[in-house]
Amino acid sequence: PAARRKKPGGAGGGSRALRVRSGRAFASASAVAKEPRFITTPIYYVNGQPHIGHVYTSLACDVVARFSRLDGHKVLFLTGTDEHGQKVEQSACKAGESPQDFADRVSDTFRALLPLYDFSADQFIRTTEARHKEAAAALWSALVESGDLYLGAYEGWYSVRDECFYTEEELVDGNAPTGAEVEWVAESSYFFRLSRYRQRLEEHILANPDFIGPASRRNEVLAFMRDGLRDLSVSRTTFSWGVPVPGPPPPDGLSHVMYVWLDALTNYLTALGYPDTEAADFRSFWPASLHVVGKDILRFHAIYWPAFLMAAGLPLPKRLFAHGWWMNEGEKMSKSVGNVVDPVALVQRYGPDPVRHFLLSDVTFGADGDFSEKKLVESSNAKLANELGNLAYRTLSFTQKQCGGAVPAPDAFSEDDLQLLAEAAALLPQLRTHVDSMALHRYSQGVSGLASAANRYIDVQAPWALKKSDQARMRTVLYVLIEVLRHLALYSQPVTPRIGAALLEQLGVPEGGGRSFAAVGEGSALQPGQPLPPPRIVFQRIEDADEAEGGGEAPPPAAAALTAALTAAEEAALVAEVGAAGERVRSLKASGAGSEEVGGAVATLLELKARLPPDHELNAKPAKKKKSKAAKA
Description:
- It is a single chain.
- By secondary structure, the protein is α/β, with parallel strands linked by helices.
- It is built from 24 helices and 16 strands.
- Helix 11 links the parallel strand 12 and strand 13.
């Protein structure tokens, strides 16, 4: 009704600008300088291939990192591989390789996940790098200087798979609490005076409720510490694959290597330039803003790591968050059970955005989840294809036909218009709260809520009917919908970056500041008359949802939708780039280049291949060669 309409720009009218108010002042993301954020995954142990749990941890960090960058923070997102220890040495021997060659090969499989899942890591660190060995040795020396290391002898239970010591009381049916086998170990060892730090650590946890999350994990750590902490064995002598303990030869005359967890945890410092605490990155990013880990390695990060840092006189991380496990039909995934989800096959089948969306929306972040491809397909179709994709396509295709392929000029805004526009602008602080509190499952729910409101709005306003009765009102409704789509595209970028980018392209928003959260609200609204590209579907519905549970072949929709725009010339140029990148990898390996340089070249190759259509011959897996009977003999 005309009586409910308001002129754009306030009572004076005449101006396109819309003053959206949601009850409080809304500052742009760039208005206030924001603290840098250092966000880390644990470094993944190279004794086996990547699994869906590794993807889940990296995805959580990627979403926080992407959101933080869009929200005006300087970010360093770190991931990598843990490559020392007895288990790696044993696995290499079983594979007939040297530990270094084995680590190089398996580390590449973890690095390959970055382009496959669109993870935006700034650094990929390896514990076999020279800079890391230097940092680990420096931390060891700091613990010596603090008087917290002494030579003794360890005798007790040890799990090679977990690389963890266990007391008799912790064993469950003769195995580690994780189910791993344990063996009795007796050897000379350096010990860290962990018992000295129980009280200080407990006081820190109690004084900083957000230091460990979620609350259940915090309570678990406090309960573990209640009866005191035993000094920790931090060196091994029964194998050699590790960082050598620095300093003069020990009195026992044995060669000690650092305990793999003391070695591995130091990576967070290595990445920032430690032991140079005046390095620019160290000054900017330490203490870490967020360590994200699986609940199975909580103890190492919540007790050992802060105690090491206290002893070395370094500030503690601001927050540690331990998430749950992905189960399969209620069982923990296990190779022996045969229910492990292959993350590479999964993303090749569906594309990264559907998998990312499902993993971070299906279960409460921090709790255990039950994986189901059928649920992944149903969620993608309902939320990405129908709710968002269909809204975008019918809005933009109708605008293309009725408004000359340009942003329409709005007339007066109704209360319904103002309410929806305000809801779009007011969603950012809610999403910021979800990210800061690590309620990441609520992020997609918030975006979905706005998309649902826009779908209700278009159904009620019915611009197709207004075409015949009130074209000025039709243009206003379309303008409102386009503005809400712009906000949905901005908010989609952390979880579904390809869909977010595709929708922003559909709206003619160029790369740069217009795609950051500084563009939320009226200040960056699209201008009437601005040309809009021809509309296309930003996310195709996944067909054969019932077949998905049985492992049938289906096209990766997100990848297909986004690579469809490649012209023949563009594809040919990309194929040439892939060929050149592959030749560089071969050349580096042949010349004996370092693992970091080779790994970087491999990552570039995989990123280029990911931009090709999924069914391109260069993305086909090579057929396995069958061994002849003579070869077997």
